[in-house]
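// run 5 | inverse folding | seed 20
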C-alpha cells in the first residue's frame, strides 16, 4: 500500500482519501497493482493466522472463540476476494463490506473470549464479562464512528461530494471524513491482531474480585 501511495499520480491525503482510491486502475494507473497485491496478501495472511489459531485451540471448547475465528476467517477471505475481483461491478463494494464487518466482529468476539479467559482467577463472572466487553468493544469504535459521521454528513451537508481533497479545501473537519475512520479501523484491527498474537493477558482491574 505504501508503494501504491508513492505511485499515486497526484497528492494522496489518507485523511480525506479512501483505501479504494489506491486500488482503482483509473485513479492510480501506476500503483493499483501494488495496492491490490497488498490487500490480497493481507487477506491471505489473515486466513493463515486464523487457521493457526483454530488449530492451536484444538476442539472448539469455547463457542465464542470458535465463532470469532470463523467470522474473522470469512472477513479475511472476503478481503482477498475483493482484491482479486476488484473489477467486478459493485462486487468489490459488497466484498469490502463483508470483509470489514467480518474482521471487526471476529476480532471483537475473539478479544471478548480471550479477555474473559485471561482475567484473574479470583474475579467474579460479572466482572470478567464486563471487563471483556469493554476491551472488545474498542474494536467496533472506528466502524461505529464512521457510520455516525456519514449519517450526519448526509443530513447536514447533503450537497457535499463523496469524500476527497475537496473536503479539505472546504475546511471540513477530518473527524467527519469516512476515509479517516477507514484508515483508523485498519490501524485498530492491526493492533488487536498483534495483541492477540502475542497472547498478552489483560491486567487485573481494581475492585473486580469476588467477594
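// decoded
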Amino acid at each position: 500500500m505504501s508503494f501504491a501511495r508513492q505511485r499515486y499520480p497526484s497528492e494522496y491525503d489518507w485523511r480525506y482519501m479512501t483505501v479504494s482510491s489506491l486500488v482503482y486502475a483509473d485513479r492510480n494507473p501506476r500503483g493499483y497493482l501494488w495496492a491490490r497485491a497488498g490487500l490480497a496478501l493481507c487477506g491471505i495472511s489473515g486466513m493463515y493466522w486464523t487457521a493457526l489459531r483454530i488449530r492451536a485451540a484444538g476442539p472448539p471448547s469455547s463457542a465464542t472463540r470458535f465463532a470469532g475465528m470463523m467470522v474473522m476467517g470469512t472477513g479475511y477471505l472476503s478481503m482477498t476476494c475483493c482484491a482479486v475481483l476488484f473489477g467486478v461491478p459493485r462486487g468489490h463494494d459488497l466484498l469490502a463490506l463483508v470483509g470489514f464487518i467480518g474482521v471487526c466482529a471476529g476480532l471483537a468476539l475473539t478479544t471478548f473470549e480471550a479477555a474473559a479467559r485471561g482475567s484473574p482467577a479470583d474475579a467474579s463472572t460479572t466482572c470478567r464479562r464486563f471487563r471483556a466487553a469493554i476491551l472488545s468493544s474498542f474494536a467496533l469504535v472506528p466502524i461505529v464512528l464512521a457510520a455516525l459521521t456519514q449519517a450526519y454528513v448526509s443530513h447536514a451537508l447533503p450537497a457535499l461530494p463523496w469524500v476527497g481533497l475537496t473536503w479539505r479545501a472546504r475546511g471540513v473537519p477530518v473527524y467527519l471524513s469516512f476515509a479517516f475512520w477507514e484508515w483508523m479501523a485498519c490501524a485498530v484491527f492491526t493492533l488487536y491482531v498483534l495483541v492477540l498474537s502475542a497472547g498478552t493477558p489483560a491486567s487485573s482491574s481494581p475492585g473486580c474480585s469476588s467477594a
